[in-house]
Amino acid sequence: MAADERSELLQGTLELLVLRTLALEPMHGWGIAQRIRQLSRDTFAVQQGSLYPALQRMLRKGWISGEWRVTENNRRARYYALTAAGERRLSEERAEWERASAAVNWVLGGRRAGGAA
Amino acid sequence: MTRLWAELRERVRALVRRRDAEREMEDEFSFHLEMEAEELRRTGVEPDEAMRRARVAFGGTERMKEEVRDARGVRALEDLAFDLRLTFRRLVAQRGFTLVVVLTLGIGIGATTIVYGLLRGVVLAPLPYPDPQRLVMMEEITPDGSRFSVSLPNYRDFQREQRSFSHLAAVADRDVALLGTGDPLSLHAQSASAEYLPMFGIHPVLGRLPTAGEYSRGERTVVLTYALWQDRFGGTPDVLQRAIVLDGEPYSVAGVMPRDFETPGEPALWLPLANAHDAEREDHDLMAIGRLAEGVAIEAAESDLARIATRLGEAYPETNSGWSVQLTSLRERMVGESWPRAAWILMSAVGLLLLLTCVNVASLLLARSLERGRELSLRLALGASRGRLVRQLLTESLALSGLGAVAGIAIAVAFLPLVREALPADTPRLAGVKVEPTMMFVSLALALAVGLMFGMAPAIRAARMRAREALADHARGERPGAGRVREALVATEIALAALLLAGAGFLGTSLLRLQAVDTGFDTAGVLVVPLSLTSERYADGGVQRMVNGLEERLGSLSSVSAVGTSNVTPFGTWGTVVNLSVEGRPSGPGQTTFASWRAVTPGFFSAAGLRLLRGRLLENADHAPDAPDRIVVTETFANRLFPESDALGKRVAMGVNGTNWREIVGVVEDVRDLEVEQLPAPLFFLPGIGNWANVTLLLRAPGQSAAISPAVRAVIAELDPDLPVPAIEPLADRVRRSTAGPRFYLQVMSGFAFVALLLAAMGVYGTMSYTIARRTKEFGIRLALGARPGSVRRLVLRRAAVVAMVGLTTGTVAAVLLSSALGSMLYESPGVEPLTLAIGAVVLAAVVVLAALIPARRVARISAMRALRVDG
Lengths: 117, 872
Prior knowledge:
A: alpha+beta; 3-stranded antiparallel β-sheet; 4 helices; 3 strands; globular; B: 872 residues; alpha+beta; 6-stranded mixed β-barrel; 29 helices; 15% strand
């Protein structure tokens, strides 16, 4: 049970991270993984493969769209882009996240929560 | 809205373009891995190491693929299609296994469905009339407690004074000759009181039912059955305007009953019951049936009638004192007593068989599932989710059970006509025996339950274990627990087979005893010729004249050695019983002596082959009109009525206060002339046919019985061209038919026992083969260490012998305990039959040993080297 709750939490976090990454520019799976690694300063240590089920779920929910394109090194890759629904979702998620982390920070020591980057 | 639409589109796309999606996923994963490896190489990692690290960072690709597939949201449908394809392929690949499981289940379900159809159609189904539970049969009970038909004067009194019935009707069997519609036709008819047909609550399809007024005025009107109307009157409505001739008298047709209208006795038509005012209270020849008034319980109606019976006993002490009345549900009475018992016993037997087939399938599935343990753990290790495996196994089990159920229904539909054919001709409500959907569903549910229970066991185990453990566990060989379950299943199979074998054995020895019964007749070469001499030309001694003429003509045929006549057809449906007075003994209330009687001609004794014990047989002189009245009695009659002295020379008279004394001149061996199973009743023969309209000729024509029929018909037609052509039949056939019921039960039970034997053998064979296959390595080690093949084989067989003994003992003990339940179906059961049980056990043991020996021989062929190389 505990394991399920944690993975659910991670799943939500992962989706938020993907949305934020794609808000900058369309990106393929590996690129998203790289960006998340930088964004989370390598603390987000899940297996890279877990990204793909998350992408599939988000495709299904209509937050992102996928398209095969050729990369700058002339390789075929599937690029994901944020849809309008995805953008709405991102701002909702961000607001939610900030509220939640502010609350957590307040509980843990009253330090003023700063918006994460 | 758009989001929903997008989601739907994505799902449909995923479903329709499953293959594309799979390829895209592959491409995407390999792109990712290559990019990651490239990145690592740039930092100076060796190419191979880079790829390895990329994979580690990525996680298990197969597991990720599964998760992506899950995320597509069409897994359930996709998996179902996949599982079905896989199941189909597996079932085809394992044709033998599939066939065995499907056939086994099919036989179990098919047999159960057929037997339930029998039970339901013959015994349980309600009668096809409105409010059938209100219909009851009324019988008079003699002072010594036996059931009796109702006499006409009694019926009239009951009918007038009762307050519990909406209808209380009486009906009498009567044979009539129908003339003027083609060949003369002898018909089984019934004379019915005015209440009789309206009581059933079924309207005629044509015309109307005669009114009570028409009946009481004695008008000659009849009601036809649908079949008679079709066969003899072309099914045209103008039959209502026609007069039909029955026994030479014209009748008008009031109506025709519907096609599916069935009544007790199955007559072809109904005539009015003559309202004879001179009928004797002693002549009990009516069947009384009533419809209880709304809301009246059968017990209340019975006490209502008992009140009237008491009054009649006081008013007519000579004939009615001590008599009472009994009511029985008409359905129960029509079905009879032996059928419900027999049908329930067959149902229990088929239940055991179904159980056995289920156990067999269970053990087959269990064996299969253990073999699949490895496949399952491998798939688990490769990243298949546990739910996914469970679903796959579920699909397979359901597919197998489903196919089994289909086979069962097919078997039931195909074999039901054969079973109906094999049923004794006198089976009540034979037409109602059909495939009952209820039972089909129950059997199907059972099959599914078995499939689920034993097909799922490995899935549940697989779900509990971790992949690595599973592989390791598998390498260790069979788990001890699973072996126990299999052995228990096989022991159960053997026990059930022993039980069914014992049942068949009991029925078989019972039938042997029944067939060995001495009926008193010598049936070899004897033909039975029943005649109904009902037309007006047989009035005033015409019957006796006709019988004399026939006997004279037929007796002169060269191949006929003896000819005789009786008023009762041997092994027919009815006999004649009378209350006797014994000379010198007080008669009166409570002093009743019933005896069967047969009116016969002098030739009857030699034609029937009855054996004289003492005194003499009836002779021609005894038939002379002015001869003293003399009778011949059976041994039981003599012993029962005159236990302390010789019956010869004693005198009895028919009737409670009879005065026409008849002297006993001879004693013959006991005769069973109605049913072989019935113990011989006191019976006497009196000379002369009198005016009895139904007579039966017996012809003894040694070796010629088949060829002589045309000559017999020619003689009859010569003497009376209007007489319907009789059905001529060997006496031996009639005797045989009397044991048709027990023979049928034996056939069914033997069939069950045979299948049970087969299934038990299969169970043993399968388990042995499986055990040996699993222990090949162990045996190899033993052989390598110097064990002789014989001792290894003994090792295997010893285990099988223990299992077989446990099963056999359990089954035999159960058979002993259950034999009392079967007792009521057995003829003169001597209780527990050790010999029958022993024979059954020996047969079963032999089959089991054979089934174990065949795979056990393989042990000897195990080569130590090869066995050790066997993996697993």
